[in-house]
Specification:
Elements: E1 31-37, E2 42-47, E3 62-68, H1 73-83, H2 87-94, E4 101-104, E5 109-119, E6 124-134, E7 138-143, H3 151-159, H4 169-204, H5 208-240, H6 248-313, H7 329-350
Parallel strand pairs: 3-7
Antiparallel strand pairs: 1-2, 1-3, 4-5, 5-6, 6-7
């Protein structure tokens, strides 16, 4: 993850609805794929310019327009003209720093969600914005890059698997959101495995590498929660059926996604608590290690204190010290010092101080 907040200052002072791309440019050119289907047949088209697109003349077709790349103003404007989309919707599409949300424009719905993937090599969570426009007989999806997250849905539409070609456009929108949420579980599993591995390493080592990994994952979990939590409100609104664009038949599917989002949020909160606990364990381990070192040094200093005292007494060199003329004085004092040291070591061991 490159930054906490993407720069919005470029839009300061501009009129509402001004189309300026905010975010990382993921594709050099905008790629557009179009599926026009009904229960009997499906037609797939691909083109690089929206001028080549023509709306289906026959009624009874569902149109799915998938746009990869949201940095090209001309393409976004052209889509807005063809489907009569509000300028604020187009503005939000090009601003990839949106929070997940749902907006009802009457004739169509605008849904913003986030896709999430976890890269184990650099331990980074990759988050991209997906914008979905749901109309009576069409769905438009805007992706930052040319990803493969919707490949399973494309296969169902092309081959007619399942009920997707028998249902209306709202079921297609459900299928797309369901794929996004399902990928959350994949990312959660990979993050969970990384946290378990880090937890095992923390038991045996307390190096700076472990601390950096913990801090990095804690920061990533903050971004993750910010990207997922608002989606719960979006799915709650869709599940309640506050718009006529979602049929009664599709409400139950939206409720299922809502439950999945709650499960993902529980996992995120659990991981955050685990990382906070691991940080406490790390700090406790460092403190215990320091205490062990200080204990050894204290024991050594305590043993040598009486020895230093004895050496100091007999190092004063007074003329009439009686022991100075004693023949065995030197070995006797050494024996006394050794006896004191052994006695103190045994005493400390009996007290279980080391």
């Amino acid at each position: 993850m490159t930054g906490i907040v993407k720069k919005r200052s470029v839009k300061t002072g501009l009129l509402p609805g001004s189309l300026i791309h905010i975010g990382e440019k993921k594709e050099s050119t905008v790629k557009i794929r179009c599926f026009e289907y009904n229960e009997e047949r499906c037609v797939e088209k691909s083109f690089d310019d929206m001028k080549e697109y023509e709306a289906p003349k026959d009624k009874g077709y569902i149109t799915w327009l998938n746009v990869s790349g949201v940095h090209q103003v001309e393409a976004i404007e052209r889509i807005g003209e063809i489907f009569h989309l509000h300028p604020l919707l187009l503005e939000d599409t090009m601003n990839t720093d949106q929070r997940p949300k749902l907006e009802d424009y009457g004739d169509y719905l605008f849904i913003v969600a986030k896709t999430i993937s976890f890269h184990r090599i650099d331990e980074a969570i990759k988050i991209e914005q997906i914008s979905i426009v749901l109309g009576p007989d069409y769905v438009i999806t805007f992706e930052e890059g040319d990803g493969d997250i919707f490949d399973v849905v494309r296969e169902r539409v092309s081959t007619g698997k399942g009920r997707i070609r028998k249902m209306a456009a709202d079921y297609l929108a459900y299928s797309l959101i369901d794929v996004i949420v399902d990928n959350y579980f994949t990312a959660m599993e990979e993050i969970g495995e990384k946290i378990e591995t880090l937890e095992d390493e923390l038991v045996t080592t307390t190096g700076q590498t472990a601390l950096r990994s913990i801090q990095h994952l804690k920061r990533e979990m903050i971004f993750l929660r910010r990207s997922i939590w608002p989606l719960r409100e979006v799915m709650a609104s869709l599940e309640r059926g506050e718009t006529c664009l979602i049929s009664e038949q599709t409400h139950v599917y939206m409720r299922d996604i809502y439950d999945h989002v709650i499960q993902v949020m529980d996992s995120v909160d659990t991981f955050r608590d685990m990382l906070s606990g691991m940080l406490d364990i790390y700090l406790s381990s460092v403190s215990n290690r320091l205490n062990e070192v200080m204990k050894v040094l204290t024991i050594i200093a305590t043993i040598f204190m009486p020895l230093t005292f004895i050496a100091g007494v007999y190092g004063m060199n007074f003329k009439f010290m009686p022991e100075l003329n004693f023949r065995w004085g030197y070995p006797a004092i050494l024996l006394l010092m050794a006896g004191v040291a052994v006695y103190m070591v045994e005493y400390f061991r009996k007290k279980k101080w080391f």
